[in-house]
Design goal:
The protein is an alpha/beta fold. It is about 30% helix and about 15% strand.
Length: about 120
C-alpha cells in the first residue's frame, strides 16, 4: 500500500458510496489515510449509514446515476465548493451498473465552475 507523502493531500470522489454497504469501510479508510472523501450518489443523505456520513467530507445527490450531465455537474460542484478546493485526484465506484456514465467522467477533468 502506498503511503501518503507529508503535505500532500488527495481528493477522492466515490460514486454511489452507499452501495454496496462495504463502501462505508472503504471511505472510512480513505479518510483515516488523510484523503478528502467526496460522495456522489442517488440515495438521500439521511439514508446513508452513520459511518459513511462521518467519512464523507461532502455528499452530492443526483436523481439518476446513469445520466451523464448531472453526475458531471456534481463533479464540478465538488471541485468548486465545500471541502474540496481543487478537482479530485482519484475516483471510483464498487457498483458498476452505470459504468458507461462513470467511465468518461473518471478520465476527464471536472469543470472549473458550474453555470
Amino acid at each position: 500500500m502506498r503511503r501518503r507523502r507529508e503535505g500532500v493531500s488527495m481528493n477522492f470522489v466515490f460514486f454511489s458510496p452507499h452501495f454496496p454497504a462495504n463502501g462505508a469501510d472503504f471511505c472510512d479508510r480513505l479518510k483515516k489515510a488523510g484523503a478528502t472523501v467526496l460522495g456522489i450518489g442517488d440515495a438521500p443523505y439521511d439514508a446513508l449509514d452513520g459511518k459513511l456520513k462521518a467519512a464523507l467530507s461532502e455528499y452530492y445527490r443526483v436523481a439518476d446515476m446513469e445520466a451523464y450531465e448531472p453526475v458531471f455537474r456534481a463533479m464540478g460542484h465538488s471541485s468548486t465548493n465545500g471541502a474540496a478546493s481543487t478537482a479530485s485526484n482519484r475516483s471510483t465506484s464498487i457498483g458498476w451498473s452505470w459504468k458507461p456514465t462513470f467511465a468518461p467522467i473518471s478520465t476527464s477533468t471536472a469543470p472549473s465552475s458550474i453555470s
